[in-house]
Amino acid sequence: MMINPVTPWTATVQSDIADSMPIFEIDLKAYKLKIHDAGDSIWLVVIWPTDVSIAFRLAFGINSRFEKVTISEAPDEILITASTRLAYYRTILFFPESLQATFRYTTTLRTKLPLLIPFWPRDIVPLTKDGRTENTAGTIHTKQVGSRSGQLYFSMTKPKAGSVFYFQNLTAMSPYCQETEVSLRETVGGEWPEIGFQFPVNAEKPLPANKEYIISDAFVRLDENIPESDAEIVERYLDLLASIYLLLPKPEASQHSWLPTAEKILDNISNNKGCWTQTDGSPYLNAYVGDYKTPAEIMVQLAVILPLHEYLTWTGEKHPMLQELSDGLTSFYDKSIKSLVRWHPSLNNDLDHSEEQKSEMVMDSWYLHHPLLNLARLALRGDRMAKKLFLDSIDYAIKVARHFNYKWPVFYKMTTLEVLKAETAPGEGGEKDVPGSYAHVMLLAWQLTKEKRFLLEASRSIKSLDGLAFDIFYQANNTAFAAGAFLEMYKVTGDKHYLELSYCCLAGIFKNCQLWDCNYGYGKNFPYFFSVFPLKDAPYTAAYEELEVFAALHHYLEAAAGIAILPSLKILIPEFIKYATGRLAYYYPPLLPKQMIAEKTKTGEIQKDLWVPLEDIHDGWEKSGEVGQEVYGAGLAFGIIPRQYFKLGNLGGTVFINYPVSNFRVGKNSVTFRLEGSALLRAQMSLLGFSKEILTKINVEQKVKSSYQSVRALRNGFYELAGAGIVRIKIS
Questions:
Q1: Interatomic CA distance for residues 225 and 222, integer angstroms
Q2: pLDDT recorded at residue 3
Q3: Which of these, 30, 405, 448, 643, is most buried using a 10 Å CB contact count?
């Protein structure tokens, strides 16, 4: 009986390989690797120590058989050249230096005539001794969604083999996509047993003849273990992803001068009428530029107030906009239910019911907690009014949590707690990361008051997250903040389960990242590498959620001080921060070409010269900004500067570092700080505001292991440092 239905391209693989002789064999750690010319495909068969095999398709003949295959061997790599009646192929099988069993295969194609290619099979097939591929069984732990990383993590359980982490460097296929106008979305994945990379076919625009294109650049990590528990799956995933990340070709991190940008942004927001609305004589920020129809929202105000508070504290200056916005917050408090509400109460009649939440007293579950989170963060920074609003609303949040037994629906009525929408999609349940957001709010309440009832609430909420693993992730910013809250709960209680839950949250974040650069279409104008998507099925990345993930990952590393967290996180988190520090500037339309920006928007209008970010960046063949120009994301610069720029006090000048930093200390003639990443990777540092004469008197040293080593400037005031270790800057 067939367990798994298969296509003809998979049904014959087993017999094709069995009927062919290996043309090359090599050992890799405990595994045996054999290369087969099976007629229409060249296969790399990996044999586990248990004698179970999985085949990786190195080349596909496109309705033609391989006529000539030659193999030449060099240190650490094998070159395979082959041809058919239609095309020439070249595959490099490379074995990077690694303690684990890892290999990479890169295949290029050069056609003999212009070709339309309507189909391409996936490139991984599990094998069995009885020749029945359809009788195998396996678990796919995660795979590519939309334009996220081209990753696939799976375990083969029948026959029992082990696990594979497979990663396509999709950046390498950008020239092909540019030529044929196809996309790399949804190309890595599949359903068991037909899994792997499905090359994006060009059914409409032909591939030109006699031009070579990379059609696969796969990294494969083999593992004899099959993870079972949530903790095992996500920790193994993070370790495997980090190990492959070290091998990936990575773009240079873009740089941006945030200090002058922040001044432009503050001026633009303050003076542009499209950013503001007036209600009861008080000013409020619109959610989107030119959106005067939607009433003022509490989240929008706090989304700018908090980073602006951080920025003005950093500058030591004041700005009237902060006070104006803060003064308007109390108007969102409803005394009848004793809680903040989403919409300005005076404007309920303006709600047009065009969306489910655009009705009076309708609450989106995550939305109740997000303003409370930012109020608590302000309160911890010394804002008394924020503390009062937070504590006046906290008991309502507890009431709601208990009513829903810590499993929140999507929408409910704030007055009656009637469920208006129970699930995000049929069978999917509600917003699964809300228990984490709620626990975070409760933890902050405990930090503000030291009342143990809040810790008890947090622990009750967290229990509803068991068994979700990657699926805790619903909204990126909330999930990232929840990770830090769980880590802090671990520090308070010593319960390792909280630490494991923090890893589940972070695995969800990194699963939803784009670890490749979309260098085709409009994507040639935007640095995509290491961007994160706001929702697990979102078709675009979004400015505000990215900023909050950036801030939350900073907080996670700060909370991790003195804790032995997974080494993989010291690779992935700092690298996200490094790329975000420059990349996030490209949400601002003044830095983008006009042709990349959508002509029509869902909400409001786009002012090309205004320093307010677009909400949405899409795949390279789609224009961006279709949702609108989000005022609530305008705090990007305000959130980045306090975390990456450091004033040197009496020494003058400022230090910019694109990595997470701890223990930044300014002495009489020197500065020291610690980089919180991995010494296997590199961070960049710029010394700003110093004269050329002073720069010649500055000496930079770094201690990675035992002693300080001098670091030379690559150019005036610009240095590259190891991603971990103590840095010392001395001015003679």
A1: 9
A2: 67
A3: 643
